[in-house]
Amino acid sequence: MTLIVLIVIGVLTIGLIVYLAKSRKHIDESEFASSRKKPNPNLECCGEHEVCEAETLLTLSEEIIYYSDEELDAYRGRTADDYSDEEQEEFREVLLTLQMHEVTGWLKSLGLRRIELPLAIRNEALMIVDDFRQIRKQNREKNGK
Fold first, then answer.
1. What is the pLDDT of residues 114-139, one digit of tens each?
2. Cβ atoms within 10 A of the Cβ of 133, count?
3. Residue 138, exposed/middle/buried by CB under 10 A (0-12, 13-18, 19+)?
């Protein structure tokens, strides 16, 4: 039974990764590097930039925002597959305290701090980000925007 659950989770994770990879716009390295130095008007949205930035993993700011997770700085430089179960739980505890709209910002913060998420936690966080995007999309469609 446990093996079947793990297989199902693995298949769903792979499906989510493929879906996210296909839905993400491709931005070449030079455009991304220049967008971090100064805001690129083509990446900004009309008047609701903070809302749009909350839905994407790209950031135009290098400001690091902490989510009561300063203790995670100790994991700077570690690889995603280099965490014990206890260490993964530290990340999961922070993730579970966040509201859905905060997860994207948390992922950006970890990236700016050069902290790589454990694989299992990354998959959970990406599912939350995808759910948030779907809810926002449904709300926009419902409100006619």
1. 999 999 999 999 999 999 999 999 99
2. 16
3. exposed
| pLDDT tens, position by position, 30-44 | 333 333 333 443 444
Pairwise CA distance, residues 104 & 18, whole Å:
19
Among 141, 52, 142, 131, which Cα is nearest to 98's? Answer: 131
Give me 14's structure tokens: 């792979």
Task: Quote the CA–CA distance of 118 and 92 in Å, as a whole number.
Answer: 9
The string of DSSP letters for 5-68 reads: HHHHHHHHHHHHHHHHHHHSPP--HHHHHHHHHS--TTTS-SS-HHHHHHHSS--S-------S
Tokens (6 digits) for 86: 């206890």
Burial string for 12-33 (b: 16+ CB within 10 Å, else e) reads ebeeeeeeeeeeeeeeeeeeee
Tokens 């939350």, located at residue: 128
Residue with the bigger pLDDT between 92 and 140: it is 92
The total of other beta-carbon atoms located within 10 Å of residue 96's CB is 8
CB 79 within 8 A of CB 58: no
